[in-house]
Amino acid sequence: MTQSPTVQLEAEPIFKMEAVMASARMIPGGPFGDMVAIDVSGGKFHGPRVSGKVMPSGGDWVSVFPQGARVNVRLLLETDDGVPLLLEYRGVAPVRDGKQRSEVGGLITAPADSKYAWLNHVHLVGFGGGADGVAHYDFYQLL
Q1: Residue 101: phi, psi to the nearest 5?
Q2: Which residue of 19, 31, 63, 92 has the fewest CB atoms within a 10 Å radius of its CB?
Q3: CA 76 to chain CA mean position, Å
């Protein structure tokens, strides 16, 4: 068996996001662990090329396991100049050294005729987590 090479990835920031978590509903004892549906009531995002607000729609569907969780998020964003964007991301939130951190990959859907159409061709990677009712994420584009 050959050893895989070590890979270092380069990335540039797309935006930082703060999403305010509202109500949460639990579906206990599912076949894949407990499920939690978390509504998002708003928030903001800011980056070098795109900024705006998180709209009060969408949310996070979390599968909870003893070792951590899996996240599945869909959010509607609106840029500062009024362009709607759909942000979708999924990933894992393992517990390491007693702390939980989400590691996600995602996509943005933007109107094809907008100045944000470039986002339709970006695969996002992100890192973050929730505390005190707010999810904080940093999203990047791999170079």
Answers
A1: -140, 130
A2: 31
A3: 12
Extents of the domains making up the chain: 11-142
Bigger pLDDT: 1 vs 19? 19
pLDDT for 13 equals: 97
Contact 122, 141 (CB under 8 A): yes
Question: What CA–CA distance (Å, rounded) separates 106 from 74?
Answer: 10
pTM above 0.85, yes or no: yes
Q: What is the dihedral of CA 31, 91, 16, 106, to 10 degrees?
A: -110
Could you read off the pLDDT of 2-57 as tens digits, one per residue? 787 888 989 999 999 999 999 899 999 887 789 999 999 999 999 999 999 999 98
pLDDT at 71 over 80: yes
Region of 103 (left: φ > 0; alpha: ψ -120 to 50; beta: rest) is beta
**Domain covering 11-142, topology:** Porin (2.40.160)
Cα separation, 134 vs 73, whole angstroms: 14
The tally of CA atoms less than 13 A away on the side-chain side of residue 111 is 9
pLDDT value at residue 30: 81
